Model the fold of this input.
Amino acid sequence: MPSITKNQFDRWNAKAQGGFGFAMKFYVLWGEKTLRRTDKLQNGNLLEFRLYFREEIVMKSSLYGNQYSVATGRQIPVLNVSEWEPSTNGMYVSHGLGEEIDLGPAVDRKQYDLLCKLSGTVGDLVQARIDHANTTEEVETT
Done:
């Protein structure tokens, strides 16, 4: 399990922009430097945004025409957007894993400074998602 000092946390957190902060949980549990932002919606739900790296996967074809996926070893910066709603016991529940939005080309290695730079450039996208979630009403199906 990775360890972190308060000084390291403060330094990493200070680099984040646009309302994002260093996500301690992801670092301690999985060793991943991730940025996280949570906004409360008008309906009481939470909209969570996470910036992290996902491994680049490409599709290949075998000699017989079968498709298979191969990891390239490169990393793609992504923004994950997920909505959480309060449950009856006070916990929040998310239905699904959210949506992943690729934020750029694949890079050779994970770069925390790149995530911090991207956190300052995704403000319009984040605000558009918040506005959309606040104006969209759920349609009940019977």
